[in-house]
Design a protein that fits this description.
456 residues, alpha/beta, six-stranded mixed beta sheet, five-stranded antiparallel beta sheet, 19 helices, 17 strands, 46% helix
Length: 456
């Protein structure tokens, strides 16, 4: 009798100890019937032990309490088994079942421990995210973390003023935005403004050009993949770019080039804010604002069956159409000045544009828009040895198409050149008298010229 009392006392003490264990503990007998559940398991799973005790594990699976049972796997394999599970859709746990054998080598019971690894997985995700983000600039993607850097967009025209007002209105909201317009008009800069003006400005801003990535790779780059998902996949799998942008903004440039097979999966991301890595059976919630851009007519592509209508309306909740540069000529002058001064500073070169040269640039129709203008300005800065840039220095196609449309006389050209020489001399000498001496004229003659040029 004393022996049985001691056993009962020890059993009670063991149960008390198990109640204070931080890991969940679940014990079943040799038939898979629940014998014991501790408090930690109740807290992890959200289930009451009163609903579990005395129940067969197979029945609990059928009733949806759990999706699989380590205890039944141990009873079948007759050896320890570990699996990963997600409890209540929020707790990541590692479940390890160990068999307890009697003296005849038969399983008497299975003791299962359930350890919460949610924080560990989050730390792992953060480390993986940091590693992947650090590698983005070495590949075909663009990553931007805007905290202390301000987005900038130069404009003077009324058309662009209205667009900036629209950006200011929609930026604070997580609404999907579709930016349309010809190549080189500044669609990416508009996207930068939207991100910077939102409350996501200190979060990642990842941009992907859908036309620059082979179709076979695009899905795995966007969604990521699990270990062994396909031949050539990384041993530990890979986090997708959409997952890397969690909390921030994701830009899909040239969205019209996205293959139909991937449009279906993108629809789920935009609609449900859920992603599922290739090779995985689990979905993950993400918080990403989607900005799309295209130079194509998506409505025509929908009519031709090349773009999904349901995806279009999800992406184009707000549409911003950026006009070509030749429809907003007021912006040309400010862009010329900005790029010219920027490249002078960047390359540490002293150059000057003749007023007539600037007029030729302003008269050009710029079919390549801002991108072409920027490239032309950089070219004349670095490729022309002369300090003063004349119309003849401009690329032939610009000079021939625009110069003939500029009204000019020989007197006007000589005076423009004279102005440039005078300005240069004054900058160097910082005195009208000394500048006049360098130019070989009397200082009163120079004063009269300056008054006439300034309209005084």
């Amino acid at each position: 009798m004393a022996i049985y009392q001691n056993i009962a006392k020890i059993s009670t003490r063991l149960e008390t100890i198990l109640e204070f264990v931080s890991d969940g503990v679940y014990i079943v007998d040799h038939s898979g019937i629940t014998l014991f559940v501790n408090k930690a398991y109740e807290q992890l799973s959200g289930f009451s032990r009163n609903d579990l005790l005395g129940r067969y594990m197979g029945d609990l699976i059928e009733e949806g309490y759990i999706n699989q049972s380590v205890s039944l796997l141990v009873l079948r394999e007759k050896e320890p088994v570990s699996i990963m599970q997600t409890l209540r859709g929020e707790k990541d746990v590692i479940v390890t079942g160990r068999p307890i054998f009697d003296q005849n080598e038969n399983i008497e019971m299975v003791v299962t421990s359930v350890r919460d690894i949610t924080k560990l997985n989050k730390l792992k995700d953060h480390l993986e995210r940091a590693e992947n983000i650090s590698n983005l600039n070495h590949h075909r993607f663009t990553y931007r973390q805007q905290g202390d850097e301000q987005a900038q967009f130069l404009y003077k025209s009324e058309q662009m003023k209205k667009i900036i007002q629209q950006v200011e209105q929609v930026a604070p909201f997580p609404t999907s935005v579709l930016i349309t317009g010809p190549s080189g008009v500044g669609k990416e800069e508009i996207a930068n403004l939207i991100h910077y003006m939102s409350n996501r400005q200190k979060k990642p801003f990842i941009k992907v050009n859908c036309a620059a990535i082979p179709e076979a790779l695009l899905e795995s780059e966007l969604l990521g993949y699990e270990e062994g998902a396909f031949t050539g996949s990384k041993r530990k799998g890979k986090m997708g770019l959409l997952e890397l942008a969690d909390g921030g903004t994701f830009m899909l440039d040239e969205i019209g080039e996205m293959p139909m097979s991937l449009q279906v999966k993108l629809l789920r991301v935009v609609q449900d804010k859920m992603i599922q890595r290739i090779g995985s059976t689990q979905s993950k919630k993400i918080d990403v604002r989607i900005i799309s851009a295209t130079n194509q007519d998506l409505e025509k592509r929908m009519e031709n069956g090349a773009f999904r209508e349901d995806l279009f309306y999800r992406l184009a909740v707000v549409q911003i159409e950026v006009p070509p540069l030749n429809e907003r000529l007021d912006d040309v002058e400010i862009l010329i000045d900005y790029f010219f001064n920027s490249f002078k500073q960047q390359y540490r070169m002293e150059k000057e544009l003749l007023p007539e040269t600037k007029k030729v640039l302003q008269a050009y129709h710029w079919p390549g828009n801002i991108r072409e203008l920027k490239n032309v300005v950089e070219s004349i800065i670095v490729s022309i040895p002369d300090k003063i840039i004349t119309p003849e220095h401009l690329p032939r196609h610009i000079f021939q198409t625009s110069y003939k449309n500029i009204p000019k006389t020989l007197k006007d050209q000589v005076e423009n050149y004279e102005k440039m020489l005078v300005e240069e001399a004054i900058k160097r000498k910082r005195s009208i008298r000394q500048a006049a001496k360098e130019l070989g004229i009397h200082h009163t003659t120079l004063v009269k010229k300056l008054k006439r040029w300034n309209g005084a």
